[in-house]
From TrEMBL:
This is Cation:proton antiporter. The chain crosses the membrane at residues 28-47, 97-122, 155-172, 192-210, 222-240, 246-266, 278-297, 303-325, 332-352, 364-390. Residues 19-388 form the Cation/H+ exchanger transmembrane domain. The keyword Transcription regulation does not apply. It is a multi-pass membrane protein. Its main location: membrane. Coiled coil: none annotated.
Length: 428
């Protein structure tokens, strides 16, 4: 109970000072990770959070699914349909290229690593984190089209990355019974197909009942938020049972639920988002207390180099290729390329790999942990100054070029995290 008490105290402290810290770029993930690490370093017995990998995996998965669902409920489908170019290219071109570039970098940086392990590492670090990117996505100083591209990409790429990861894990453990292309296609069909189906079923079921009950005045006020939360959990549960991607199910479920319930979607999913925040907080404290602490003795210069390249070249080069010819200026391409944080999805993949076992686990898992930790630090601290710099450039650019690609009208609904002037620049 000492560990549980300590975790609760840490979360309460963050809650009390979250706003001024967040404005300075100290995100919740950064705070929880650092505090968890420091407490473990100074008082090793206080945060003894040794839990089964499977339990930790479920906590991280459900937390990410709830955040994906709540974010997706606020997407405007009409605006999304008319502005699919950037997010589609980031997903269908950028994501596969990130895996390929990460694979090549892994073979160069770790010359003795098995080919299968290098490919596995690349798939684990390809997805970006929707939750860690919220500070940028919700900042009104960033052009709506850029925010939407990052939002949709981060919402779907972890789900789309699951088939590649599962195939890579099977190859690494010599469990693949078919050809690579067949395995990827089969896994992708199952993960996407069942994930979409689960999201549609849960989103429609919860959304239609909410709409009916709301119109008739049948829903008690205290159950409005609970209905949305349970709909999110239902999308996760159905996808899990069917063998589909729980992340795709959550995102599709959120879009379907939000479209079905109508304008109130902006407020009824707040409990789901807050529950996701709570589970993510527990995950990041455990990450700092256990994963980061255990990984430190195994960190080598190769691990650090790969982590840095993963956050820069491996991410930014594919983004530049994906957006080539789409009218985006180099400043926008660099901004989108940099803000691709690694987080909960990569940790979930690492926990699955830890549970099932993987060759060269020490190198692979240590590299994932260091990359995620470095991402939390760098993306958090750089968000405020880089958003400010990008806003200054965009303001000047859009005034000179009104028809700039970045200025295309795009509706990005207001989020709970959106505070007028949160960056010191943007206004709601």
């Amino acid at each position: 109970m000492v560990a549980v008490t300590t975790v609760l105290v840490i979360i309460i402290v963050w809650s009390a000072v979250s706003s001024p810290l967040d404005r300075r770029g100290i995100t919740s993930a950064l705070f929880f990770m650092v505090v968890g690490f420091i407490v473990t370093l100074l008082l090793p017995q206080v945060l003894d959070l040794r839990v089964e990998a499977l339990a930790a995996e479920r906590i991280a998965e459900v937390g990410l699914a709830l955040l994906l669902f709540s974010d997706a409920t606020r997407l405007n489908l009409r605006a999304l349909r008319s502005q699919l170019s950037w997010p589609t290219r980031l997903l269908l071109i950028g994501l596969p290229l990130s895996i390929l570039v990460g694979f090549g970098v892994g073979l160069v940086v770790f010359p003795g690593i098995a080919v299968a392990s290098a490919f596995l590492l690349a798939t684990m670090l390809a997805p970006t984190d929707a939750a860690l990117g919220q500070k940028v996505i919700s900042d009104t100083a960033v052009p709506p089209r850029v925010r939407q591209a990052l939002d949709v990409e981060s919402g779907l790429n972890d789900g789309l990355g699951v088939p590649f990861f599962l195939v890579a894990l099977a190859i690494a453990n010599a469990e693949l019974e078919t050809g690579f292309t067949t395995a990827v296609f089969t896994n992708m069909t199952l993960q996407i197909g069942w994930g979409v189906a689960a999201g549609l079923v849960a989103g429609l079921f919860g959304g239609l009942l909410f709409r009916l009950g709301d119109r008739q005045g049948w829903i008690a006020p205290e159950w409005r938020q609970i209905l949305a939360l349970v709909s999110a959990l239902l999308s996760y549960a159905i996808a899990f049972q069917l063998g589909g991607s729980v992340f795709i199910a959550a995102f599709v479920g959120g879009i379907t639920f939000g479209y079905t319930v109508g304008p109130v979607r902006s407020v009824v999913s707040m409990l789901a988002e807050q529950a996701g925040d709570l589970l993510a907080a527990i995950t990041w404290i455990a990450f700092g207390a256990l994963a980061l602490s255990l990984a430190i003795p195994h960190i080598t210069w190769q691990v650090v180099v790969y982590a840095i390249l993963s956050l820069t070249v491996v991410r930014m080069l594919p983004v530049a290729i994906a957006l080539a010819g789409r009218g985006a200026r180099v400043q926008t391409v660099a901004f989108i390329g940099w803000f691709g944080p690694r987080g909960l999805a990569s940790l979930v993949f690492a926990l699955i790999a830890l549970e099932r076992g993987v060759p060269e686990a020490e190198v692979v898992l240590t590299t994932v942990v260091v990359t995620v930790a470095l991402s939390i630090l760098l993306h958090g601290l750089s968000s405020v100054p880089l958003v400010a710099a990008y806003h200054r450039w965009y303001s000047a650019h859009s005034s000179r070029t009104p028809d700039a690609a970045e200025s295309v009208s795009t509706i990005v609904p207001r989020r709970r995290r959106e505070i007028p002037g949160a960056s010191g620049i943007g206004q709601a």
